[in-house]
Amino acid sequence: xxxxxxxxxxxxxxxxxxxxxxxxxxxxxxxxxxxxxxxxxxxxxxxxxxxxxxxxxxxxxxxxxxxxxxxxxxxxxxxxxxxxxxxxxxxxxxxxxxxxxxxxxxxxxxxxxxxxxxxxxxxxxxxxxxxxxxxxxxxxxxxxxxxxxxxxxxxxxxxxxxxxxxxxxxxxxxxxxxxxxxxxxxxxxxxxxxxxxxxxxxxxxxxxxxxxxxxxxxxxxxxxxxxxxxxxxxxxxxxxxxxxxxxxxxxxxxxxxxxxxxxxxxxxxxxxxxxxxxxxxxxxxxxxxxxxxxxxxxxxxxxxxxxxxxxxxxxxxxxxxxxxxxxxxxxxxxxxxxxxxxxxxxxxxxxxxxxxxxxxxxxxxxxxxxxxxxxxxxxxxxxxxxxxxxxxxxxxxxxxxxxxxxxxxxxxxxx
Length: 415
Ligand SMILES: Cc1cc2nc3c(=O)[nH]c(=O)nc-3n(C[C@H](O)[C@H](O)[C@H](O)COP(=O)(O)OP(=O)(O)OC[C@H]3O[C@@H](n4cnc5c(N)ncnc54)[C@H](O)[C@@H]3O)c2cc1C
Hints:
This protein is α+β, with helices and mostly antiparallel strands. About 30% of the residues lie in helices and about 25% in strands. The chain folds into three domains: about 15-60, Uridine Diphospho-n-acetylenolpyruvylglucosamine Reductase, domain 2 (2-Layer Sandwich), CATH 3.30.43; about 65-175, Uridine Diphospho-n-acetylenolpyruvylglucosamine Reductase, domain 3 (2-Layer Sandwich), CATH 3.30.465; about 180-385, Vanillyl-alcohol Oxidase, Chain A, domain 3. The protein has helices at about 20-35, 80-90, 105-110, 120, 150-160, 190-205, 235-245, 260-270, 290-305, 320, 355-365, 380-385, 390-400; strands spanning about 15, 40, 55-60, 65-70, 75, 130-135, 140-145, 165-170, 180-185, 210-215, 225-230, 250-260, 280-285, 310-315, 335-345. The strands form three sheets. A seven-stranded antiparallel beta sheet has the order 12-9-11-10-14-15-13. Strands 4-5-8-6-7 form a five-stranded antiparallel beta sheet. Strands 1-3-2 form a three-stranded parallel beta sheet, with helices on one face. The mean pLDDT is about 95.
């Protein structure tokens, strides 16, 4: 089994490879007979390794990666990676909502919510989940769609893998062939000012423009702030925005060009390839990048003891904020910035193991309640309690209806 985070060292009792819904059904029956707890493995990118249940039975869907395209719908196997799906979409001249790393499983990404460069224009990954094939805890194969099982579809759109084993996703594809995207880095002396002005740009950004930012360390050991724009729209207007973004300070490096979303995902993969680093993560949502928030981010970056630790900021804006909160289980609908704290260390050095958590505590006074369930963990009870806001009651009622014996425990649900 290939998990993204080598810090995960728990082991299952058994692993069953599944390539069809019948295999999944057989796996669930085996678990029931043997009394083993179940987990579902797809892309293996959950940072806590929740796709591997300690001492349990893993239903390994990682070979269930077939993708087909019918008109403007992409149908992906439950174990498909983001890059598999984007490649199939690209061959038909379109794109789907994905994040920025190609090896991330599209199912975990979509069911959790799905933050990515197309959120401003077309909504989240979950918003663009049209239907799903799901093997339920009782072995029944359900087709969740607006027409045939709207409650199950609602729960899957943000409620994570807590309702059954998804064997296929039907995702809306958009006629988007390219994106003007890249990364600009700025020296540490300007980091605070750049991040502050970056927040102002995001406040003005149209739906077509989604700009990530953050702090990281270059291979030469130099700490930098980075700004990573993605523009999907009319080229001349895009170039104007890129000019404004490179003008946020005196850039050390500028690499912005027109590319496919496949290129974006491959570049994301390259950033993590072969590093062998161990990770601990935490996150906070904030309504705005106030001076206090930016100062906390800068202080945290300066407090890192590992050069591999980083902070990424994702803006949530545009179309993704315009759906009523009750329309999907995913409930963080107000415009916000997701601040992702990625503690990463070389296993020999074990530095920064508590850095992400410490930083999360420092950001807490400025944060919105709740957070992104895909990135929350066992220490984040308070955030988990508010992650589904007004949707909590309905989500928990559907959990009782579709999985009364709590067979599935993927990303955390409130109690
Ligand atoms: C390097 C990296 C980059 C990331 N980038 C982004 C990003 O840009 N945007 C974003 O929103 N998130 C991002 N994430 C978070 C990511 O979306 C989640 O961790 C997601 O759950 C990973 O899915 P997976 O299939 O790879 O992981 P897995 O560990 O295989 O699964 C994750 C969870 O989903 C459950 N699950 C998986 N497949 C199924 C299925 N078929 N049926 C039922 N349950 C299932 C698992 O049991 C597990 O609980 C990133 C994570 C990493 C490590």
